[in-house]
Amino acid sequence: MTAREVADRLRHDLGKAIVLSRRWLADGASEAELQAALRDDVLRTRRGPDGVMSAFEVWAARRGEVVGVFPEHGAVRVIDAAMEALSAERAAIAGEGPVAAELLTRLAERTDAVEGACRALVDAARGGR
Fold first, then answer.
1. Angle between helices 55-69 and 31-43 (to 10 degrees)
2. CB–CB of 57/87 below 8 Å?
3. Pairing state of beta strands 46-48 and 51-53?
């Protein structure tokens, strides 16, 4: 696959999907709604006929080809760090009980970081940075 194909695939499968449910939330959504959206975005990132994959599984499946094409790109480190941080909070993301507002904000920031890093890889593949 070309760099552009790898980047476009990652952006579609991970970058857009990890923020999809949250993007549909209305302004002023409750913390419970935000938590449910983050749960779907992180733990049910890719949904299709072959089943459901979490963001962690999508990244694990795509990381090798991404590193093969973008071995030194900082966006890979950003995604790695965000995935590590999200993984550390996996129990809170999966739980049904309330999560502190500060943690929800951090989780949203981490998913935004993944989205931005995937976009940066697309830009790089198209001749940008």
1. 50
2. no
3. antiparallel
**pLDDT tens by residue, 53-78:** 999 999 999 999 999 999 999 999 99
Residue 119's φ and ψ, nearest 5 degrees, are -65, -40
The model's pTM: 0.93
Residues in Cβ contact with 109 at an 8 Å cutoff, skipping those fewer than 6 apart: none
Q: Which residues contact 27 (CB under 8 A, 6 or more apart)?
A: none
pLDDT at 128 over 70: no
Q: How far apart are CA 15 and CA 12, in angstroms?
A: 6
Q: Alpha-carbon distance 30 to 18, whole Å?
A: 19
Closest CA to 93 of 63, 57, 54: 54
Which residues, including other chains, have CB under 8 Å from residue 126's CB and lie 6 or more apart?
4
Domain coordinates of the chain in residue numbers? 3-125
For the chain, strand residue ranges (E) read 46-48, 51-53
Q: What is the distance between the alpha carbons of residues 128 and 72, in angstroms, rounded to a whole number?
A: 15
